[in-house]
Design goal:
This protein has helices at residues 13-24, 43-46, 51-54, 67-78, 99-115, 150-153, 157-173, 212-215, 238-250, 272-279, 304-310, 317-325, 328-340, 357-376; strands at residues 4-8, 28-33, 55-59, 83-86, 121-125, 141-142, 192-198, 200-202, 232-237, 261-265, 268-271, 300-301. By secondary structure, it is of the alpha/beta class.
């Protein structure tokens, strides 16, 4: 049944897709943005189907230095919402201080949610960075049961901030936490939390700005990268990540046996050579052909249990990479053409067959299922 949900960071890469899916399901959305004055940053939200009738945009700097002000603004946005998706979080790998805004955002969002009588569930955008940074063996398969360790996080500002922010969220809602003090008539905590930990997120952006996730691919499309790394990447489509948030906050996937609702979202891992092979099928992409020496060994992360519980079926990574790459040659070309002639060039996109990608993913998923099954049996 359609209801009202609030989404922080609604203009962001993941947040925009969350808003789009909620609207497509007939829900009303209270979307928060950092500043209403920066209208161009969230103009794409107003053009989404259903936005005219069921989208309200609020100003709330959820991750600002004034936590109290952020909390007050969020309480206004959360009024009448049955669920909250807290997707607002800094994603700037070059930023010096990433911890303070991440922690401030979690505090403000959860306090505002706990103070809003209508809110029952919160879905928090965490990251696989909170899962896999440890000194475990290279062939270890990580699941949502794993946490990045303090000793391994030293010097990794982004990974450390995401880990501490998610741990803070759980501390606030579990027994003894400030948000766990409020109980329903049966004595259970009124506020339920789900955290979602996506790996490197790719796929189409709804906004016009080049985000940090897609910027990862740009050097391999615009000709600035001269070689292909030997390593690999764990990837997941932004549309699947957004759907996972929606399903989590809708509450269809309830906790079992006291387990936390923590979901590791990864569609699979591919070597950069395979990623570049796929990107090469996009017309206008200037993908390098020289390969760095070494053997690809991406970290193995498994989301079999989490994906199955939520009901998310990850789309093929080939489609995700193609859809993410398609606008990148245009972005690069537009920048050059505007400075030279003041006009833009449209590029046609073609797709060709990519060999062996699906076979690799199928093999990896089967191995992951076996490892998870063995771990659950205690082997």
């Amino acid at each position: 049944m359609p209801t009202t949900f609030a989404v922080t960071g609604a203009a962001g890469y993941i947040g925009s897709h969350i808003v789009s899916i909620l609207l497509s399901k007939g829900h009303t959305v209270h979307a928060t943005v950092r500043s209403l004055a920066a209208a161009s940053a969230f103009a794409h939200l107003s053009s989404l189907p259903g936005a005219a009738e069921r989208l309200r945009i609020f100003e709330a700097d959820a991750c600002g230095t004034d936590v109290a002000a952020g909390e007050r603004a969020l309480m206004e946005a959360f009024a009448g919402a049955t669920g909250v998706v807290h997707a607002a979080s800094p994603y700037d790998l070059a930023a010096v201080d990433q911890e303070a805004p991440a922690l401030a955002g979690v505090r403000a969002a959860l306090r505002a949610a706990a103070s809003s009588p209508s809110v029952q569930r919160v879905a928090l955008t965490s990251s696989a960075a909170a899962v896999y940074v440890s000194k475990k063996p290279a062939d270890y398969y990580y699941t949502e049961l794993d946490w990045s360790t303090e000793e391994a996080l030293e010097g990794l500002a982004y990974h450390s901030a995401k880990t501490k922010a998610e741990r803070l969220a759980w501390a606030m809602v579990e027994d003894g936490g400030e948000c766990a003090l409020q109980r329903d008539a049966a004595g259970a905590p009124r506020l339920m939390l789900a955290t979602l930990c996506p790996t490197q997120t790719i796929g189409p952006a709804l906004g016009s700005r080049l985000n940090q996730s897609l910027a990862l691919l740009l050097p391999y499309v615009d000709g600035s990268a001269k070689s292909i790394p030997a390593k690999g990447k764990c990837l997941v489509d932004v549309r699947d990540v957004a759907l996972a948030h929606v399903l989590a906050v809708e509450g269809a996937a309830a906790p079992r046996n006291g387990e936390r609702e923590r979901y590791l979202l990864v569609a699979g891992s591919l070597p950069w050579s395979a990623i570049c092979d796929i990107m090469r099928s996009v017309e206008g992409a200037r993908v390098p052909t020289v390969r760095d020496a070494g053997v690809s060994s991406p970290q193995a992360l498994c989301s079999v249990r989490g994906a199955a519980r939520l009901g998310v079926h990850f789309r093929p990574l080939e489609d995700s990479i193609i859809d993410a790459t398609r606008p990148l040659p245009l972005l690069h070309r537009v920048a050059h053409e505007r400075s030279a002639r003041g006009r833009t060039i449209l590029l046609l996109v073609t797709r060709g067959p990519i060999e062996h990608v699906e076979e690799r993913l199928a093999s990896e998923c089967e191995r992951a299922r076996q490892i998870v099954a063995d771990r659950e049996r205690g082997e």
